Amino acid sequence: MKRILLICALLLGGAVAQHALAQVPGGGGPGPGGGAGGGTGVPIDGGASLLLASGAAYALKRLRGRNAPRS
User: Fold this and answer.
1) pLDDT of residue 56
2) pTM of the prediction?
3) Spatial separation of the C-alpha atoms in residues 34 and 40, rounded to whole Å
4) What CA–CA distance (Å, rounded) separates 66 from 21?
5) Residues 25, 31, 33, CA angle at the centre, nearest 5°?
6) How many Å apart are CA 49 and CA 44, to the nearest integer?
7) Helix or strand run (H / E) with residue 2
C-alpha cells in the first residue's frame, strides 16, 4: 500500500512540476516612458518623508547625547 501511494505521489508531483514549467511569462506592464498614459510614476512621498523624519530624530538624539553632562 505504501508503495502505491509513493508512486502516485511521484506521478502527481511530476505532473504538477511539468505544468508549472509550461507556463509562459506575462507581458510585464508598460515600458519606460509610459506611452499614452504618461509615465510609470512611483509614489515615494510616504517612504521619503518617513526616512527623513527618522534621520532627523536620530540626529537629534545624537546631538542631545553629545551635549549631556557626563558622570
Assistant:
1) 94
2) 0.36
3) 6
4) 59
5) 170
6) 8
7) helix 2-21
Q: How far apart are CA 24 and CA 52, in angstroms?
A: 42
Which residues of the chain are modeled with pLDDT < 70?
A: 18-44, 68-71
Write phi, then psi, for 39 (nearest 5 degrees): -95, 175
DSSP assignment letter at 68: S
Q: What is the per-residue DSSP string for 6-64?
A: HHHHHHHHHHHHHHHHTPPP---S--TT-GGG-------HHHHHHHHHHHHHHHHHHHH
pLDDT at 1: 85
> What local confidence, expressed as pLDDT, does residue 58 receive?
94
How far apart are alpha carbons 29 and 41 in whole angstroms? 13
pLDDT digits (tens, 9 = 90+) for 33-44: 555 555 556 666
7: cell is 508512486
